[in-house]
Design a protein that fits this description.
- This protein has six helices and eight strands.
- The protein has helices spanning 40-51, 76-88, 91-107, 122-134, 174-184, 212-230, and strands spanning 4-9, 12-19, 26-32, 55-59, 111-120, 138-142, 161-166, 190-195.
- Strands 1-2-4-3-5-6-7-8 form an eight-stranded mixed beta sheet, sandwiched between helices.
- Helix 3 (91-107) packs across helix 4 (122-134).
- The mean pLDDT is 97.
């Protein structure tokens, strides 16, 4: 089956990677990438999510800046390129794109109509913003960078939300982590999990700070949460 679909949003068309489970119909999970685009890590993540019985859809968030972004986490040049794309990225337009992706996913013939949003770093922030502004059936954030700058929107969230945070995250300071945890404590059905000794992107496949034990625990919590909320 095809592994790409086209999302026709309000502001243009963009691509998305899709991985389908063996048993359909199924709920969908919108998977939001880091600064590296829909790369091998995100495609592998989509495959793992589909193995849990969900349709995984990863939209190209940077399509306005550059099409088909697919960067390596081990290349310094790719890191810098991704950071430049992220700096130019329109977060408000991006949230609308994610909403459009979720609407499309819900209407797929093989989807049950239930849709969650799940993201990493910038994708985690975009999960937070999209959920606050447009809602979802469930939301999962892995180390959402810059979220502390948008906590005035936290009160809008009524979606069940799960947050994973490495306690030693080098990009999200301990004061920022405390602010995020305090904001989530005021949201019904929100849970904040801190992972002692873990750094940014501790669950990224083959990443510099990958920790198999912590990643397995985070993913276990995620899959149990999604199964409970979407089925």
């Amino acid at each position: 089956m095809q592994d790409r679909i086209t999302v026709k949003g309000h502001n243009g068309e963009f691509g998305a990677y899709i991985a389908r489970p063996k048993t359909l119909p199924a709920p969908a999970v919108i998977v939001l990438h880091e600064v590296f685009g829909v790369n091998a890590d995100i495609r592998q993540t989509c495959g793992e999510i589909s193995e849990q019985g969900f349709i995984a859809v990863a939209p190209e968030m940077y399509w306005r800046e550059e099409a088909n972004v697919n960067l390596s986490v081990t290349s310094e040049a790719d890191w810098q390129h991704g950071l430049r794309l992220n700096q130019a990225f329109d977060r408000d337009a991006g949230a609308r794109d994610i909403r459009d992706t979720a609407i499309l996913a819900a209407k797929l013939s093989e989807c049950t109509g239930k849709v969650a949003v799940l993201g990493y770093c910038i994708g985690g922030l975009m999960t937070f913003l999209t959920t606050a502004r447009f809602g979802a059936d469930a939301a999962v954030v892995y180390h959402g960078g810059d979220t502390e700058k948008y906590l005035d929107e936290a009160h809008r969230i009524d979606t069940p939300l799960l947050w994973h945070q490495g306690a030693e995250d080098e990009f999200i300071s301990k004061p920022a982590q405390a602010q995020i945890e305090a904001a989530l404590a005021k949201i019904p059905n929100a849970a904040f999990h801190s992972y002692p000794g873990q750094y940014h992107a501790f669950s990224r496949h083959n990443g510099a700070h990958y920790n198999a034990e912590a990643a397995a625990l985070a993913h276990k919590r995620t899959y149990e949460f999604l199964i409970f909320r979407l089925r």
